[in-house]
Design goal:
Layout lengths: L5 H11 L2 H8 L6 H12 L1 E2 L14 E3 L2 E3 L3 E3 L12 H12 L3 E3 L7 H11 L8 E5 L5 H13 L5 E4 L9 H9 L29 H10 L4 E6 L2 H9 L4 E4 L13 H14 L5 E5 L5 H9 L4 E4 L1 H32 L13 E2 L2
Parallel strand pairs: 4-11, 5-6, 6-7, 7-8, 8-9, 9-10, 10-11
Antiparallel strand pairs: 1-12, 2-3
The structure holds flavin mononucleotide.
């Protein structure tokens, strides 16, 4: 039976994904307080719909850093898509482009970024051009960064998304337990962007990243820089000062520091700080987005768009590229209905008055 919502995809994916990969996909850190909060915080927010508004036509189109997209819902960067499906990120890119959604490809994809870009272009985007951004992890070996950024630029990626919440890997105990039982990388693992096929060609994550690194990164590429993993007003203000084009309010899907707020709880202080800094910086959110109403709530609190992580992997595992398209279409059609029921026929009409915080 065709899944009718994102949680049905989750249940089906669980049946298909090997236990070690499932542990890697689903797990959060420590006691998974933040992982659960990402969902429960959405559920605590109430909507304030307006009635007697003409909702005969709903327009979900928007732009992300100037790139037109069919929906304010994009594919979050995640590692190792080949563990879900042999076509890995190529299928994800195809599925996202068919849906008209922007995709952020991860540094630790199983396929090289050039092949992902080709797959996206072959599928044709919403406007005929592939809306793709590249997510960057920085390793101790800086030459790897320069190389990745130049390659991403040459391959037509439109922004660099620097992930700033992973100086080290969080304490993911599902993974630990599984790796003890079954040592070795997850099935299907090969870091497609690196010569040796291992993450960062074996170079460890760089723990010395600072705001100076952000300035340096801006200096080596004309592409806009987005920082992923910001949770406070203080860091949002610094991001604006350092000229970044976008911020992703993210706790890495509850996989890094446990006990940080749900992203929807952190969003208001980040958007307020960006506004106060007079910033033209766009703010996005990821973490726990599973329903159209979650998207509505994030947009009401100032996000320009949301990213979805695990649901994309579930769709990919269940039905390859068509599964990715289907997950995005489900979220999009839920959002369309929700906008109509909320009396908000355009993305621009979704404002702060739509929500009541707990
Ligand atoms: C299996 C998995 C792998 C991930 N890999 C990356 C990655 O390579 N780079 C990155 O910036 N974020 C990564 N993330 C975090 C996601 O980009 C995103 O922040 C998170 O999944 C959003 O939460 P959600 O899964 O609840 O939608 C990963 C998340 C998961 C679940």
């Amino acid at each position: 039976m065709e899944p009718i919502n994102v949680s049905e995809y989750e249940a089906l994916a669980r049946e298909r994904i090997e236990a070690g990969v499932w542990a890697f996909y689903q797990g959060g850190s420590d006691d998974e307080v933040t992982l659960r909060a990402n969902r429960s915080a959405f559920e605590r927010i109430r909507l304030r719909p307006r009635v007697l508004v003409d909702v005969s036509s709903i327009d979900m189109g928007t732009t992300m850093l100037g790139t037109p997209v069919r929906m304010p819902i994009a594919v979050a960067p995640s590692a190792s898509h080949a563990a879900a499906h042999p076509e890995g990120e190529l299928a994800t890119a195809h599925g996202a482009m068919v849906a008209g959604a922007l995709m952020i490809a991860s540094t630790v994809s199983n396929y090289p970024l050039e092949e992902i870009a080709n797959a996206a272009r072959a599928a044709g985007g919403y406007t005929g051009e592939a809306p793709l951004w590249f997510q960057l992890y920085m390793y101790e070996d800086t030459s790897l960064t320069v190389d990745l950024v130049q390659r991403a630029q040459a391959a037509g990626y439109r922004a660099i998304v620097l992930t700033v919440d992973l100086p080290r890997l969080g304490n993911r105990e599902w993974d630990k337990r599984h790796n003890k039982l079954n040592p070795g990388p997850p099935q299907g693992y090969r870091a497609g962007n690196f010569k040796t096929g291992t993450d960062g060609d074996g170079s460890p994550f760089n723990q010395r990243l600072t705001w100076k690194t952000v300035d340096w990164l801006r200096g080596i590429t004309p592409l806009p820089i987005v920082l992923k993993g910001i949770l406070t007003a203080e860091d949002a203000a610094l991001a604006v000062q350092h000229g970044v084009a976008g911020i992703v309010v993210s706790n890495h899907g509850g996989r890094q520091l446990d006990g940080v707020p749900a992203t929807i709880e952190a969003l208001p202080e980040v958007t307020a700080a960006v506004e106060q800094a007079g910033g033209k910086c766009e703010v996005y959110l990821d973490g726990g987005v599973r329903r159209g109403t979650d998207v509505l709530k994030a947009l009401a609190l100032g996000a320009r768009a949301v990213l979805v992580g695990r649901p994309i992997l579930w769709g990919l595992a269940v039905n390859g590229s068509a599964g990715v398209t289907s997950v995005l279409e489900i979220l999009r059609s839920e959002l369309e209905l929700d906008m109509a029921l909320a009396g908000r026929p355009t993305v621009a009409s979704i404002d702060r008055t739509l929500v009541r915080l707990p």
